[in-house]
Amino acid sequence: MTTNRLVELWPAAGIRVRAGDLELRWIDDELLLDLAELAGRGVHEERAMPFETPWARGGAREIAQRVLVYQWAARTRVDRERLTLELGVLLDGRPVGVQSAAGADWPTLREVETGSWLGLEHQGRGIGRRMRALMLHFWFEAMGAECVTSAAFADNSASNAVSLRTGYEPDGRQRVVREGSEAVQHRYRMSRARWLEVREANRALIGAEVETEGVEALLAQLEA
Ligand SMILES: CC(C)(COP(=O)(O)OP(=O)(O)OC[C@H]1O[C@@H](n2cnc3c(N)ncnc32)[C@H](O)[C@@H]1OP(=O)(O)O)[C@@H](O)C(=O)NCCC(=O)NCCS
Asked: What number does the ligand 1 atom closest to the CA of 129 have?
């Protein structure tokens, strides 16, 4: 459990978003180990590649170590210039994946791009769309975002479906290099005005009252 002393010094460590059996929370050391081991058991099928950096390929130990290194570095980037907030996803208290958001110059732009993964064993059961709906709720309702974006490779059906289901609007496409070859990503965007249109539908997806902790202190740090 994250200590009050840490939250005092680093307010992001106190972030928790809860809705019924679903929780998003700051990744402390214990949760990080669980998530690293979860990723080591598999994040995608061998034939698929949902990420620009193929971090989830290889042996279990190697993948788990990459998760540690990535998350240790991400912890340091909770600042106004290059805000990154990586939250662990727990279902009934069990770690199932990560939901992240990142954006430059937060006080001026108030825009973040979301990213996510679930352990293979937890995919395809509706957790992905619920956690995205909860993340959108957190960023628009609690953090005061003006815009949230996302991108998914054209061949990643589940990720594209999650963005459309939660109400993002298509925002073009981009060509990127994936494992040495050209690949197309679809871009998605949700403005605050769009959020207000789809908020109720997302509340229904979330399926429970949302409780947040730690937001005021984090905003004070980011906007000081
Ligand atoms: C992308 C991801 C987070 C989605 O979470 P999930 O829990 O598996 O997805 P859900 O069960 O909530 O399903 C969401 C939608 O995708 C559809 N879907 C799920 N798996 C699918 C599949 N394999 N093929 C096609 N559609 C699929 C569902 O029907 C649903 O659509 P709907 O809401 O219109 O009915 C998860 O699959 C994952 O972590 N994948 C590997 C990593 C990844 O791709 N990360 C995102 C990178 S952009």
From this structure: 12
